[in-house]
Each structure stands twice: as structure tokens, then as C-alpha cells.
Amino acid sequence: MHVKNIRGDYEMFEVKQTEEMLNKTFRLPASLLDELARIAEHEKVSVNNLVRQCCEYALSNMKSEK
What we know:
By secondary structure, the chain is mainly α. The chain has a domain at 26-66. It contains two helices and two strands. It has helices at 30-43, 47-60; strands at residues 2-4, 10-12. A hairpin with a 5-residue loop joins β1 and β2 (10-12). α1 crosses α2. It is extended and about 55 Å long. The mean pLDDT is 84.
């Protein structure tokens, strides 16, 4: 599909496949949610995106169990 960019030029729009996303509900302390919202706003990302990145980072950096 060709789309017009902000300069008025036409370029090819590429649809990228993303990993399947599922919904899950978690209960978190209000103070943690407030902090996540503050950081997400400062970094200009969604809270969902920030939480996903935090979880991925934590899992990648866990001490391995013996």
C-alpha cells in the first residue's frame, strides 16, 4: 500500500507482524501504579508498554536457581 508521508511524498507502508498479545488482570499497589504512570508519561510510552518492558527486563535479569 502506498501512503503519503508528512513531506507529501508517497512511500510504501509495511505492515509488521507482532507477537500475539493477551489480556491478564493484575492487582498492584496504588503507589506502584502511580509511579508507573508517572514514568510512562515522562518517557512518552503507554503504561502497558512500560509494564511489559519492566517484566521482560526482570525475567532476563533474574538470578538462576540451582
